[in-house]
Write a structure and sequence with these properties.
Structural class: alpha/beta
Helix content: 25-40%
Strand order of the largest sheet: 1-14-9-2-3-4-15-25
Mean pLDDT: 77
Radius of gyration: 24 Å
Low-confidence stretches: 307-347, 456-473
Shape: globular
Oligomer: single chain
Largest sheet: 8 strands, mixed
Number of strands: 25
């Protein structure tokens, strides 16, 4: 029995001074605003030196996530809100003086500095029109302790990552990070050209790895272990008065049913990543129409990857045809399915895929007996953008065989993206295979066709990153 989790939680009332009538209406799910602050009160001198945590705290939000738990508790959606979002803070009570002040232009992360949790909630609700049900504030200490109590969390990088400012120094490949290293990984600002958007993507990847770690190690199925992890997290977290043992247990029970494929990760679509504002410097501006679609999906308790309504004037297949691709690829017959039946195409006839080809790793085996066919398929897939090995092999020849794609079900969206480039291929589940797909070419006339990668800032119907795509390929 897990009890008493909320006894020592530090409380903050994020709904103080909020006008109930002006707030967005609630939806069928539960929405959590999770903010990471740079408070470091509990960080030891040794940790500060080892993990480059010196300097003074900015008393602002370092990370901001809007987490939607679906009404049926079977799906989690995580939307990263850029800290440098250009906004206008609503009139509020100044956090330092207690006096009422007028609204003013600011970056989103300044809401916490100016008015604490209440102003942060108001600013987020105003921007998104999404009702915030619960507020969780995580600092450096709670973050590191939670990672450590999980026994570390693995991350996979496609290239070495080194940032002298945060102290991050990771080799290419998979590394299990302890709490301090994990903090360096999610805080690093001087990688990828210093882009905060790339930093948000790393944070999403890491959160997906945390979900995977908690699921794979049985933490969520073991009341004793779950109690230990939850208690560690809550020791230094601040939460709204309504978030307690019951809510923590409900969240834990819901997560027990999660696979990485039942989680979605997205960032707000942007129209300008370097919007200059006098007195504020560089800010980011949202693409309002596309952002509105994203948050409308949250309010409707709908998966972000759900298809939009069909356009009768379009020459592309109906959106309902694309909906089938959101199901398990083998769901209809229990083991495998003709991938060509589910292709969704753009108006120029080129299929649009959910995962960029460069993020899909592929090896090729030639089972036709036709010399050079494996090399041709490998070369053409690589030309389309897929990350092939470049070293195709031969497989046992089979008469009248079809091309198959063996894939780990955790990478189902990557498999569908690959299948779109190989008309007529069958998808075949291969649990525990890992990220690399295996294409066994059985059709001597197999062809490769180009595919369209998702947009850089995906709208709800352009398939945001889901948890099954969170690991590097």
């Amino acid at each position: 029995m897990v009890t008493g989790l909320s006894a020592d939680v530090r409380r903050v009332d994020p709904f103080d001074d909020l006008d109930t009538d002006s707030r967005p209406e609630g939806d069928n799910g539960v929405n959590f605003l999770v903010v990471g602050t740079d408070r470091r009160d509990g960080v030891s001198a040794i940790q500060k030196e080892r993990y480059n945590l010196g300097g003074s705290a900015c008393d602002c939000t370092d990370t901001m996530l809007l987490v939607h738990l679906s009404g049926d508790r079977d799906r989690a959606t995580v939307v990263s809100l850029p800290r440098d979002t250009y906004t206008k803070l609503p009139p509020h009570k100044d956090r330092a003086t207690g006096k009422r002040v007028a609204g003013r232009p600011a970056k989103l992360n300044a809401a916490y500095t100016a008015g604490g949790a209440p102003l942060t909630v108001r600013a987020v609700e105003k921007l998104t029109d999404v009702h915030v049900d619960h507020y969780l504030e995580v600092d450096f200490t709670s973050f590191m302790s939670t990672v450590d109590v999980l026994g570390g969390v693995p991350v996979c990088t496609t290239e070495p990552l080194k940032d002298s400012y945060s102290g991050l120094d990771l080799p290419k490949g998979t590394t299990k990070l302890n709490g301090g290293q994990a903090l360096q990984y999610v805080r690093a600002r001087h990688l990828d050209g210093g882009s905060d958007l790339s930093r948000m993507k790393r944070q999403q990847h890491f959160l997906a790895s945390v979900i995977s770690r908690a699921t794979d190690t049985g933490v969520l199925m073991n009341p004793v272990r779950f109690n230990k992890v939850a208690a560690t997290l809550l020791e230094s977290v601040r939460a709204d008065p309504g978030f307690g043992t019951e809510q923590m247990m409900a969240l834990g029970r819901a997560m027990r049913g999660f696979s990485l494929a039942s989680s979605e990760f997205a960032s707000v679509p942007l129209s300008d990543v370097d919007h200059r504002v006098p007195g504020l410097g560089s800010t980011v501006e949202w693409d309002r129409p596309r952002a509105a679609k994203l948050f409308a999906a949250l309010r409707a308790d709908r998966p972000l990857s759900a298809p939009a309504a069909p356009d009768p004037a379009a020459s592309a297949p109906a959106a309902s045809d694309r909906a089938a691709s959101d199901a398990d690829p083998s769901e209809r017959d229990g083991s495998e399915q003709d991938a060509s039946e589910r292709d969704g195409s753009g108006r120029d006839g080129t299929p649009r895929v959910e995962v960029a080809p460069r993020d899909v790793r592929v090896e090729i085996a030639n089972a036709t007996g036709r010399r050079g066919l494996g090399a041709r398929i490998d070369r053409e897939l690589r030309g389309t953008g897929f990350a092939t090995t470049g070293t195709p092999s031969n497989a046992r020849h089979a008469e009248h065989a079809r091309t198959t794609i063996a894939y780990d079900p955790r990478w189902d969206r990557s498999a569908r993206s690959l299948a779109a480039a190989l008309p007529g291929a069958k998808l075949v589940k291969a649990p525990h295979r890992g990220a690399r797909m295996k294409v066994t070419v059985g059709d001597p006339d197999q062809r490769v066709r180009p595919v369209r990668a998702p947009a850089a800032h995906g709208t709800p119907d352009e398939a945001p990153m889901r948890g099954d795509e969170a690991d590097c390929r």
